[in-house]
């Protein structure tokens, strides 16, 4: 079908590389080349020049890229409109999610969604917020769920839920979390931090800068689970989402350090490419997210 070849062509043009396009499309590189040859035969024109490292479009190739985008968008819009008429929710969901959302929030949302729409195939890529945004820009995911607000001209960013960040320590850590701490008690502590690019790391850095807290030393882990385990081992204290430590707090394995008059919140946000036309499954799942009132449990 020519529509499939047009989708392959668009991906090759946007990636400027056959190998990366093949990887994104889950095709072999010869399979990608076959689609391009079909289009060149269909239009009886050379569409691109290629080398192992780059792709350069001809004038006809540039024109087809613009028209192909329009045709694919119209095709996807028609599919979506027909699916709405039939109330048919099927297809696939490819979502990028930050660690906190992907590991602690999304599984519960997926569970209820899967029971209602068992025909939808779901796939999640979990990374830090910066990695998720990059995956959305590279057209590797339908949309992303991240832990911070960003401003970008090529993306729409819509908050769908509030998240509370708290400071935690291990049971028996010198800071006794059974009573309120003040900022002075947090001076010169060892902090366990997420890596740069993480939404949690951005919030931690902002908190430390705004309060003027001195850090004795810090250790960096590239997952919330790693940070949590380090805190549990008594290595230091950390700022994490309440979602991440909910069970450990209930079991008494970790303690919350509360500071009078300080309450830290952030948004969980839905990120989409501007101009992206969702499948019906994408649309329904996004609608469900945006109906959350911030108190999802």
UniProtKB/TrEMBL annotation:
Its EC number is 2.7.7.7. Residues 1-58 form the HTH lysR-type domain. GO terms for molecular function: DNA-binding transcription factor activity; DNA-directed DNA polymerase activity; transcription cis-regulatory region binding. The keyword Transcription regulation applies. The keyword Nucleus does not apply. CDD domains: PBP2_CysL_like. It comes from the Bacteria. Keywords: DNA-binding, Nucleotidyltransferase, Transcription, Transcription regulation, Transferase. Coiled coil: none annotated. It is an enzyme of class 2 (transferase). SUPFAM superfamilies: Periplasmic binding protein-like II (SSF53850), Winged helix' DNA-binding domain (SSF46785). Belongs to the LysR transcriptional regulatory family. This is Transcriptional regulator. It comes from Paenibacillus illinoisensis.
């Amino acid at each position: 079908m020519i529509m499939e070849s047009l989708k392959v062509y668009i991906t090759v043009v946007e990636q400027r590389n056959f190998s990366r396009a093949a990887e994104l499309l889950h095709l072999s590189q010869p399979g990608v080349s076959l689609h391009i040859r079909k289009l060149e035969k269909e239009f009886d024109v050379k569409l691109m020049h290629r080398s192992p490292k780059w792709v350069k479009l001809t004038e006809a190739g540039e024109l087809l890229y613009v028209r192909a985008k329009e045709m694919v968008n119209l095709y996807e819009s028609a599919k979506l409109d027909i699916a709405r008429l039939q109330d048919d929710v099927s297809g696939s969901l490819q979502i990028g999610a930050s660690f906190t959302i992907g590991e602690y929030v999304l599984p519960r949302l997926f569970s209820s969604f899967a029971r209602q729409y068992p025909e939808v195939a779901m796939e999640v890529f979990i990374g830090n917020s910066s990695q998720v945004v990059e995956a959305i820009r590279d057209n590797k995911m339908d949309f992303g769920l991240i832990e911070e607000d960003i401003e970008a001209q090529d993306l729409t960013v819509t908050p769908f839920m509030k998240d509370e960040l708290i400071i935690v320590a291990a049971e028996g850590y010198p800071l006794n979390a059974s009573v309120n701490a003040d900022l002075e008690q947090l001076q010169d502590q060892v902090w366990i931090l997420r890596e740069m690019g993480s939404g949690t790391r951005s919030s931690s850095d902002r908190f430390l800068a705004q309060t003027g807290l001195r850090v004795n030393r810090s250790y960096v882990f590239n997952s919330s689970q790693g940070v949590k385990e380090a805190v549990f081992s008594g290595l230091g204290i950390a700022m994490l989402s309440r979602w991440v430590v909910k069970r450990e707090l209930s079991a008494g394995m970790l303690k919350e350090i509360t500071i009078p008059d300080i309450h830290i919140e952030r948004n969980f946000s839905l990120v989409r490419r501007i101009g992206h036309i969702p499948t019906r499954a994408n649309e329904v799942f996004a609608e469900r997210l945006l109906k959350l009132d911030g108190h999802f449990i």
